[in-house]
Automatic annotation (TrEMBL):
Keywords: DNA-binding, Transcription, Transcription regulation
Xref: Pfam families: HTH_1, LysR_substrate, Meth_synt_2
The protein, known as: HTH lysR-type domain-containing protein
Record InterPro entries: LysR_HTH_N, LysR_subst-bd, Met_Synth_C/arc, UROD/MetE-like_sf, WH-like_DNA-bd_sf, WH_DNA-bd_sf
Range of residues in the leader sequence: none
Organism whose genome encodes this protein: Gryllotalpicola kribbensis
Length: 692
């Protein structure tokens, strides 16, 4: 039995066909079939069978595929442990950066005190945006640039944001655009696209990020920009500006070295794509090297120091939160420990019964509760250790719902999940002994004094949004909209049942809001028979109906998720299309919002959060620390982003968390348990600095 054979079996389970597995592995279908045949010979029982012309797994094959996940996870953990404790921190770390980033970052990096003192191998290299991703095959960290709003980096890359940098219009002093402001772009009057009509541009070469910015400015002005020269070096551009009436774009922070005497700048007015992202790109496995992580932390510190004017000279401090949601938070799920994965693998192999698995779950949950308290959290979850999925396990326990396997899966950033299908084949209801009530009671009984037990369940909107056309066939409901009244009643009963069990902190996990921000996901929903028009308003009404009459001392929050599975995601898009309906139109007490990457957009949608006006003010929990990889964020960068969010909603209505859970399914994200707890402790430390 070989690892490659187990992977082939698992991928057949997940991808549904030998051809799909072959395409994923970049081998022939015959090679995949040979791997499966070799595995079947080694175990001595049939693992696959033919259904029509399609090869599918037998029951034994499915059980072994489940065990294969545990085997591979154990091997990954072992490799991570070797990396964590035996990696040579002094080994060379190679970095490539485009010219202006190299000028701004490399000198400070060379003089930085970096843990382990790794040898730096630096090079500057300007590339077209499409050329950066390929460079990670040869370079550990690639410092790349792209315009805000442009095509994202490929999903298979690890992307660590370093800086969002405004682009300013530069010209010689005395130019018609010169307003005489001596304080730089922060104090100069913004220049509109209309004012730039007819100007002669010095632009970047085609396909380089800043060239597209000039085109966007032209489009905003209603005229084609007049490009007189194409220059790829800011030093040359600056010299040419001083000698002519041309204009150009200069980066505000990394371009400080080019802003010599005789040049002036003005910021661009709103409505134009006038900022660029500076990101560090890497292969995900590269970030598991301690030396690389140390260098990345130094890079973040250097990048944060480039824009001091964007942070308050003296940071405001908020007050501590005495009740949920707390200033330092976690979403809910944690990586399954090795003991629990082994227990599930043994059950799949027939070597352990359900009672044995339950005992392993109990022990793991007691341990994860203690670790949360030790990290300084004032809340605790059970890590969702008793669930295979954050959503389907809850739905399967409802009256009138059946959950089955299904063809194919959901595509998340190039990773395909194991799919499930929902069928509403009877009247919806919440049973008096739903399995998760007992899950909560165990959590309640083992949470230490001073720690609030928090229960997480999927939102009612998720059930509605996940239903296919066939999901209602032959059941009690004619169409999707007919579900709403019974779905709200079911959740009212669930809220009351958890409250009666002692729950005072309940969270609805919800992917639907981010899906509604994605045109592609809206189109898929329409194809499933869901009426898209006004859906955000109807979901807000559904949630409010579900929360109607809840006890006043019960805190109910929601985690708005973009879909997370093995460090990949589904939805891309900022919250603006649904912000008013979600933040102002629902009766939640708090909102966990993912803000770990540019996919979530800016903080401007937070302006819809109602101001505190007596009673319990709504809270926004900023998910600024990613749970998709183990690299730690710079505390100063996180604090600066909290300050930025506080421009749109008061600081005392904000809190901090990781962007998502660490294991929305049994598979978990691509980081170690040690890295997971380092993230949690970082949340607690940063929150303590910001709020008292």
């Amino acid at each position: 039995m070989e690892l490659a054979q187990l992977r082939a079996l698992r991928e057949l389970r997940d991808r549904g066909s030998i051809a799909a597995v072959a395409a994923a592995f970049r081998v022939t279908p015959s090679a995949v079939s040979q791997q499966l045949a070799g595995l079947q010979r080694s175990v001595g029982v049939p693992l696959t069978k033919l259904e029509g012309r399609r090869t599918v797994l037998t029951a034994a094959g499915a059980a072994l595929a489940d065990a294969a996940v545990a085997v591979e996870s154990a091997l990954i953990d072992a490799a991570n442990s070797i990396t964590e404790f035996h990696d040579d921190t002094a080994a060379p770390v190679s970095i490539s950066a485009f010219h202006s980033a190299a000028i701004a970052l490399f000198p400070g990096l060379m003089n930085a005190s970096i843990a382990g003192r790794p040898q730096l191998v630096l090079r500057d290299q300007d590339l077209r945006q499409a050329e950066y991703p390929a460079l990670v095959a040869d370079v550990d960290l690639v410092i790349a640039q792209r315009l805000v709003g442009s095509e994202e980096w490929p999903a298979q890359l690890a992307v660590v944001p370093l800086l969002v940098e405004p682009l300013d219009v530069a010209f010689r002093t005395g130019h018609r655009l010169d307003t005489g402001d001596a304080g730089g772009p922060d104090s100069a009057a913004p220049v509109s696209a209309a004012e730039l009509r007819g100007a002669q541009w010095i632009a970047a070469h085609d396909d380089f990020p800043l060239a597209a910015a000039v085109q966007a400015i032209g489009a905003a002005s209603g005229t084609e920009p007049a490009i007189a020269h194409r220059v790829g070096d800011f030093a040359v551009t600056a010299a040419m500006l001083a000698a002519s009436d041309c204009i150009a774009l200069l980066p505000r922070h990394t371009g400080a070295a080019y802003r010599g005497q005789g040049l002036s700048t003005r910021p661009l007015a709103g409505g134009v794509a006038a900022s660029r992202r500076i990101d560090a790109l890497a292969r995900p496995d590269t970030l598991h090297r301690r030396g690389v992580r140390a260098v990345l932390e130094a890079l973040r510190t250097q990048a944060a120091a480039l824009a001091p004017a964007e942070r308050p000279a003296r940071r405001r401090r908020g007050s501590a939160a005495a009740a949920a949601p707390f200033r330092a938070e976690v979403v809910g799920s944690f990586l399954r420990p090795a003991s629990l994965r082994r227990a599930h693998a043994r059950r799949a192999a027939g070597a352990l019964d359900d009672a044995g698995v339950r005992a392993a779950e109990d022990a793991a949950i007691v341990d994860v509760i203690a670790k949360q308290a030790d990290a300084g959290l004032k809340l605790a979850t059970d890590g969702e250790f008793r669930r295979g999925s954050w959503q389907y396990d809850f739905f399967a326990g409802l009256d009138g719902v059946t959950v089955t396997g299904a063809e194919g899966g959901v595509e998340l950033g190039g990773v395909r999940t194991t799919n499930r299908q929902l069928f509403v084949d009877g009247r919806l209801g919440f049973p008096r002994e739903h399995p998760m009530l007992e899950h909560f009671r165990f959590l309640r009984d083992h949470a230490p004094a001073g720690v609030t037990p928090k229960m997480t369940i999927p939102s009612p909107a998720v059930l509605h949004f996940r239903l296919d056309r066939e999901g209602l066939a032959g059941g009690a409901y004619v169409d999707h909209d007919e579900l709403f009244d019974d779905l709200a009643r079911t959740y009212r009963d669930a809220v009351r049942a958890f409250y009666d069990a002692g729950c005072r902190y309940l969270q609805f996990d919800d992917t639907t809001w981010t899906y509604l921000c994605s045109r592609a996901e809206r189109e898929k929903a329409a194809a499933r028979g869901i009426r898209i028009d006004g859906l955000a308003e109807r979901y807000a009404a559904l949630i409010n109906d579900a929360l109607a009459g809840r006890p006043k001392d019960l805190v109910v929050t929601t985690h708005v998720c973009g879909g997370n599975f093995r460090s990949a995601w589904i939805s891309t898009g900022d919250y603006e299309p649904v912000a008013e309906q979600l933040l102002a139109g629902t009766d939640y007490d708090g909102y966990f919002l993912e803000y770990d990457s540019e996919r979530a957009g800016g903080f401007e949608p937070l302006r819809h959060v109602p101001a505190a006006s007596g009673g319990r003010p709504k809270q926004v929990v900023l998910g600024l620390l990613t749970s998709k990889d183990g690299a730690l964020e710079s505390p100063e960068v996180v604090k600066a982003r909290i300050d930025e969010a506080a421009r749109h909603v008061p600081l005392d209505q904000l809190a901090l968390s990781t962007q998502c859970g660490f294991a929305s399914t049994q598979d978990g994200h691509a980081l170690t348990e040690a890295q997971q707890w380092a993230k949690v402790r970082e949340v607690v430390r940063v929150a303590a600095d910001v709020w008292r």
